[in-house]
Write a structure and sequence with these properties.
Strand order of the largest sheet: 1-4-3-2-5-6-7-8
Order of helices and strands: EEHEHEHEHEHEHEHEHHEHEHEHEHEHH
CATH topology of the largest domain: Rossmann fold
Largest sheet: 8 strands, mixed
Number of domains: 2
Radius of gyration: 20 Å
Number of helices: 15
Length: 379
């Protein structure tokens, strides 16, 4: 494990150490970073190194006005346990050096848990943004990360009433919970102002319809039969509709396609890694979204497009209740009738409720509420 950092020069006690390690967390941190400016708080941003590919980690920071990380940990990638251990040790070293008033972690990645464990062992107050989310799928590493991080956290910032109720059900005292909303919505609403006239690279402007796709979860892409079936569905959708599929392929998915001998179907476009604004533009301009991502399923709704979620459960149950998206169990892709069913689901045209006025996720005010909760908690 290696760690790169710059000297911390901020004096005084109003400092927060933020741990990020994967692309969605950088995006989430952008909202709070903006709110911290002029607040009297200083932030020390630690890149825990969960995504070692800069295309997945750092390429879009400038467009979100997020500063480059103050420290970057370079954990072993030989296995999950070793990587988690290295990230925890690296964050612990940063906490000892910086002596922050609080540690902030986001979401449910291994970097989240590493930051939570390091803060707990150092006896530094821990703030978990996106606390209380549960998919109910204990087979997902993310579900374990959420539960463990919540158990270790001192201040739990939830996205809405459902997450708050879940924490209360688990015995968390209401004094530790602050219902703030979703910082991802803060960033997405700002991005929406930029995407109306912007098209991402290689966007098929002349296509009758466009299906935007992301797939990266092991439950979808590590099984050759399911991955092949999903690619066949994309091909059938394009042939049936006369449209094109826009599919920025995740490194894990691309590696598995090569390993399984699978090729990209005709009329399916891989534009390569996308920046955040370009991804939001793709979601905004597409007619339908197919994804297994926790973040993209929300962002599709934020940008006004319905989604089919390639998962049997979701931590964002509000989307299902609203009718903004629907679940599709990827296990069904092992059978030909499952592929046919997914194709029919993608053909269904769904009207998406407006985000503004929904009363959900803070409607763009989550980050200021996180800062207010932090101020109150540490006073």
């Amino acid at each position: 494990m290696k760690s790169d950092s710059s000297p911390f020069t901020v004096k005084g006690s109003r400092r927060v150490l933020t741990v990020v390690g994967a692309r969605p967390q950088f995006i989430k941190s952008a909202a709070l970073t903006r709110s911290l400016k002029g607040s009297g708080w200083k932030q020390w941003l630690v890149h825990a190194g969960q995504h070692v590919d800069d295309d997945m980690g750092l390429d879009f920071l400038s467009e979100l006005h997020v500063p480059m990380p103050d420290a970057r940990i370079r954990p072993s990638q030989s296995g999950r346990s070793q990587r988690l251990s290295d990230m925890m040790l690296g964050v612990a070293e940063q906490i000892e050096s910086v002596n922050p008033s609080a540690v902030v972690v986001y979401g449910d990645t291994d970097a989240t848990l590493a930051g939570a464990l390091a803060a707990h062992h150092a006896q530094v107050p821990l703030v978990h943004v996106e606390a209380g989310l549960r998919s109910g799928d204990r087979g997902m590493p993310e579900e374990h990360n959420r539960v463990l991080t919540d158990q270790l956290s001192d201040l739990l910032c939830t996205t809405g009433p459902e997450a708050t109720r879940q924490l209360l059900k688990e015995g968390v005292s209401k004094e530790r919970i602050s219902e703030v909303g979703d910082v991802m919505l803060d960033v997405a609403l700002a991005a929406k102002l930029l995407v109306h006239g912007r098209f991402p690279p290689l966007w098929p402007k002349e296509a009758s319809q466009v299906l935007a796709v992301t797939m990266h979860r092991p439950a979808t892409v590590d099984d050759p039969s399911k991955l092949k079936s999903a690619l066949d569905v994309l091909s059938s959708w394009a042939e049936r509709t006369g449209g094109q599929v826009y599919f920025p392929i995740h490194p894990r998915t691309k590696g598995n396609m090569e390993r399984f001998g699978l090729n990209l179907p005709a009329r399916v476009i891989d534009p390569g890694p996308l920046g955040y604004i370009d991804m939001q533009a793709a979601l905004f301009h597409s007619d339908r979204v197919l994804t297994d991502s926790g973040g993209v399923q929300k962002e599709a709704w934020f940008q006004g497009t319905s989604a089919v979620i390639l998962r049997s459960t979701t931590e964002w149950r509000e989307l299902i209740k609203l009718g903004a998206s629907e679940l599709f169990d990827p296990e069904k892709l092992k059978a030909s009738e499952g592929a046919s069913e997914l194709l029919e689901r993608l053909a269904f045209d769904r009207t998406v409720p407006n985000v503004v006025g929904s009363g959900l996720f803070g409607e763009g005010q989550a980050a200021p509420r996180v800062l207010s909760a932090l101020e109150t908690f540490l006073t």
